[in-house]
Every structure is written in structure tokens, then in C-alpha cells.
Amino acid sequence: MLRRILALALLALPVTALAQNAAPAGSAPTVPTTKGGSQFTGTASFASVGGTAFDNDEVGRLNTTIIDLSGGYFVASGVSLGGIFLGRSDNQDGLTISTFGIGPEVTLFLPIGNKDVYPFISAAGLLVNVSAAQDGQSDSINGTAFQVAGGLTYMLTPSVGITVEGYYLGEQVRPDEGDRIETNTLGVRGGLTVFLR
Hints:
There is one protein chain. By secondary structure, the chain is mainly beta. It contains one helix and eight strands. The protein has one helix spanning 2-21; strands at 38-52, 58-76, 79-92, 95-109, 117-134, 137-155, 160-173, 181-196. It has an eight-stranded antiparallel beta barrel. The longest helix has 20 residues, at 2-21. The model is unreliable at 1-29 (pLDDT under 50).
């Protein structure tokens, strides 16, 4: 008799656990990218480049730091509309170029059936301000930028995940005098994403 009770108890444990984790009747399971939720992501990248010039003279290292902060509201499951703030700093031989940008962003999270991994792609348009400073003198100009990115968010908890993404950033500015200046950056960066429901 005791063996039968133990066997029934062991069989009941997994059924009880499934019942506790199941969604209420008539409702879909809740995932971080469900309509009505929101997401906030912060990523950063750093690069240091050195070498020699054409006359074999050494040039100072070019150090570049990029910080990307974004957030959005899920207007549909997997589709987030929001905004982005971009900060970039380039330093070489006493010259510092700082770039700040802000603009709208759309992010699409792709369903792959894995509750721990969320692939995504995003696109953003930005208004940017670029300032340069060297030897006590400085100047700034305005322009536009476009960024596309794609990567993965791996969930550490139901609301927090590690994000790794590759990105392309194209910038265009026009000085008061001279031709239009265009730059583009390809890179990889990492950070954290927080989902609120």
C-alpha cells in the first residue's frame, strides 16, 4: 500500500508543476516581446587602431568608443517602436571628435520558438551633432545618420537578457564651407536588454 502511495505521489509531482506553470485558460503564454510591453537596451563597443603612415612614421592610436541606448513599446507582438540615443567619441593625437545623435527606431524580434533566445533586426534614423576639439579650439556641425543592426538577446532571467549585435552606421554632415563628409562604421557591440510587461 505504501508503495502505491509513493508511486502516485511521484506521478503527481510533474503534473502539479505543469499546472503551476501553465497560462490561464483562454490566454496565450506571455513572452517578453508580447504586445503592450516595452524594452530598453544599452550596448557599447570600443576599438583601438594604430599603425604607420605612408612615410613609415608612427601615428597616434585612434581610439573609438560608441554607446547606444534605445527603448521601445511593443505595438504588436515582436514589433517595437521607440527611440535611440547614440554617443560616439574618437580620439587621436590630441584631436577629439564627439558625436551625439537622437532619433526614431523600429526593432523586429523574430520568433524562433526558443523562449531563451530572441533574434532581432533594427533600423534607426538620427539627427547628429559632430564636434571637434584640438589645442583649445573647437567647432561643430550638424548632420544625419542611419543605422541598421541585427543580433541576438539571450535571456538570463524572464526580464533581462544579454544582447550581442552587429551594426552598420552611416553618417553624413555638411560643413558651412567645403564638400559634404560621409563616413560609415561596421562593428560589433554588446550589452543588456530589459523587458517590462
